[in-house]
Backbone:
């Protein structure tokens, strides 16, 4: 496991570009990347988690047609 500092928005954008092949054409994938601080992550592990979430979400969409929204941001006081 290799923990390193990463810009979450950039990381997610790069990951989603790589995952574009598994997102069906009938699924609209919308991203709203708000301001986030850099995070300490294991890039390989986080990429695996994102890939699994994207795949599971696309599979769960009834009739394979729908919209998925991914948003990032911070919560005040947390």
Residues:
């Amino acid at each position: 496991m290799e923990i390193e500092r990463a810009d979450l928005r950039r990381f997610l954008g790069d990951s989603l570009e790589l995952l574009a092949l598994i997102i069906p054409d009938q699924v609209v994938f919308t991203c709203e990347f708000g301001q986030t601080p850099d995070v300490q992550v294991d890039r390989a592990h986080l990429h695996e988690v994102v890939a699994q979430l994207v795949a599971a979400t696309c599979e769960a969409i009834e009739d394979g047609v729908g919209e998925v929204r991914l948003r990032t941001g911070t919560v005040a006081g947390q």
